[in-house]
Write a structure and sequence with these properties.
The chain is α+β, with helices and mostly antiparallel strands and 362 residues long. The protein folds into 2 domains: 86 residues, no CATH class; 179 residues, Glucose Permease (Domain IIA) (Distorted Sandwich), CATH 2.70.70. Helices cover 27% and strands 22% of the residues. The chain is globular, with a radius of gyration of 23 Å. The protein binds zinc ion. The site of zinc ion (ZN) has 4 residues, from loops.
């Protein structure tokens, strides 16, 4: 009898645990619908964001960025991370109904001295959105120092606040794209397309969207000649793939090399889909670009990776393109206007300007 009681107890305990774990999964699913998933595992594990579905449309990025820039340096700086987090909560994480008037409504509701934080003090989703948007966007907008044309054929150094990340495609080179993130891919195994393809011409100079450290370079059977650059704060990794056969990369890059935003890192091509190196396995020349978020190193590899749809971000980055000039002798391209920002290591905070004659020749 005692044995039976014990067995029943064990059975009840098991059933209880199963119900609890299903509850955990449902919580994850429910919250992920609103754009950010929180860790629903037991208290003993470290908590960090497990999933981000970045579906903010271009119009919302454009509007909130402009408001951020317009209010920067005033008594009440309305950052796009705060206003996007507010709008994400108001739209239940679904952005299809976003209109600029929603942002106008927020500004009106804030009056003269409130911040979004004041309105959303007790909202846990707001805090999650803030952490997620901060991870996605903190390398995109901010203070920068850069070289710029002085209007007389020379160069001057300017400090500013605005877009500090660059379009991956250098100025003066065409590309076309559509939102193909999540499309089905079947080479090797069936999977989702975890990036965005930018169609362009072979040899188009590809620049680093954001500064960072090269963490992968060389052949990959899927990406072909590819390079991955990790932002200096470690939160974002940018993956540039299918680079040019024979000369895929800018000179001198290796694992551990540090690059600046807007620096030429490689050339568009059509390599990949081959276990053999240096093979053009793509049918159309294009850059595959991916943006991975890393809240915890456990998310870098394996099944827990977070990749973002960059379509709207790339549209936004069209506003900031890196000018490049060709070295006729080597055939390589170099950036014209150097840049740095506060996120860079100390020894990278300098501007290397080209002689004005080199610039006017392009
Ligand atoms: Zn692709």
């Amino acid at each position: 009898m005692k044995m039976l009681k014990e067995r029943l107890l064990v059975l009840f305990f098991c059933l209880f645990m199963i119900v609890c774990s299903i509850g955990g999964v449902q919580l994850t699913r429910r919250i992920s619908d609103t754009a950010v998933t929180v860790n629903s595992e037991p208290e003993t594990t470290e908590k960090y964001i497990k999933w981000v579905d970045f579906s903010v449309p271009y119009a919302a990025l454009r509007d909130t960025m402009q408001l951020d820039i317009d209010t920067y340096g005033t008594e009440r700086h309305l950052t796009w991370i705060d206003t996007l987090s507010y709008l994400a909560c108001k739209n239940g994480g679904k952005w299809s109904s976003y209109k600029s008037s929603q942002l106008d409504g927020l500004v009106e509701a804030l009056g003269d001295d409130l911040l979004p934080d004041d309105l959303m003090k007790t909202n846990e989703y707001y805090r999650f959105h803030k952490e997620a948007f901060s991870a996605v966007l903190s390398g995109i907008l901010g203070e920068y120092t850069k070289a710029a044309p002085d209007g007389n054929g020379g160069v001057k150094v300017v400090e500013g606040y605005g877009l500090k990340a660059y379009s991956p495609v250098a100025e003066g080179f065409w590309f076309s794209h559509y939102d193909d993130f999540g499309d089905s891919r079947s080479y090797g195994y069936k999977r989702r397309h975890l990036g965005n393809d930018l169609m362009g011409s072979i040899g188009t100079p590809i620049v680093a969207v954001e500064g960072g450290t090269v963490e992968a370079i060389g052949w990959n059977r899927y990406g072909g000649w590819r390079i991955a650059v990790r932002s200096f704060d470690g939160k974002r990794s940018y993956y540039y793939a299918h680079l040019r056969r024979n000369r895929p990369y800018a000179e001198g890059l290796e694992i551990g090399s540090r690059v600046k935003a807007g620096q030429v890192i490689g050339y568009l091509g059509m390599t990949g889909y081959s276990t053999e190196e240096n093979v053009n396995g793509m049918t159309v020349p294009h850059l595959h670009i991916g943006m991975q978020l890393v809240f915890n190193e456990a998310q870098k590899e394996g099944t827990n990776q977070i990749w973002l749809d960059m379509y709207a971000l790339i549209e936004l980055l069209n506003k900031n393109k890196s000018s490049v000039v060709k070295d006729e002798e080597s055939g390589e391209y170099k950036r014209v206007y150097d840049v740095f920002d506060a996120s860079y290591p100390d020894d990278m905070r300098h501007i290397t300007t080209l002689a004005p004659t080199e610039i006017t020749e392009q």
